[in-house]
Amino acid sequence: MEYIEAAIKLAIPVMMMSWWVHSWLVRNGLVDPKSSQKETEEAVKNIRKSDEQASSDTGDFWTRRWLKFGGGFYGLTALWTFVVIEIKDFFWLITHPQQAIELLSSGFVNVLVAFLQNQAMNFVQAFTWIVNWSGHGFSLIWFFAAYGGFYVGMKLAKEKDVIEAYNQIKEKHTTGS
């Protein structure tokens, strides 16, 4: 049962995000579709380094966030974990209106401090995703689910048929037919 939960909660979302960012890299000619995983990692490091030096935006929103989280498997999984934590926090906020009202009535400074503290804790939790997803510490099932999703997404992004299908959809969308 834990295998299915790990696949649904972690492997599939990480796979989709990996596909998204790697296909962006391939479409923009920053990574050769025939490159190995090691060559892809090296290209991402070079993009990250050049982006930091130029201090400009690279890619779309998710690609930039991924690069800020490290630009690899661990960074992408940490980014997904951060998104999940933020969504949970949002739903907690709307399902507990009394606590939210109490916090808001405590003054702007208290709200700001609570927000910054929460963001720092969420960031730490995101980077310690390896011990948080299973609910009871480190689990190889969750680790391999995340890595498997990352790897499959990266490989799918480099598949010629997938790239051609994406380009056809994009062309149809831009021409309006």
Please provide a written account of the structure.
This protein has 177 residues and is an all-alpha fold. The chain has nine helices and no strands. The protein has helices spanning 2-27, 37-54, 61-68, 73-95, 97-105, 108-127, 129-132, 140-158, 160-175. Helix 4 runs antiparallel to helix 6 and helix 4 (73-95) crosses helix 8 (140-158).
Map the helices and strands.
Layout: H1 2-27, H2 37-54, H3 61-68, H4 73-95, H5 97-105, H6 108-127, H7 129-132, H8 140-158, H9 160-175
User: Can you give the mean pLDDT?
Assistant: 83
**Percent range of helical residues:** over 70%
| Spatial separation of the terminal alpha carbons | 44 Å
Structural class designation? mainly alpha
Number of separate strands? 0
Please count the helical segments: 9
Let me know the largest β-sheet: none
Beta content: under 5%
How large is the radius of gyration? 19 Å
Succession of helices and strands: HHHHHHHHH
List low-pLDDT spans.
none
Shape: globular
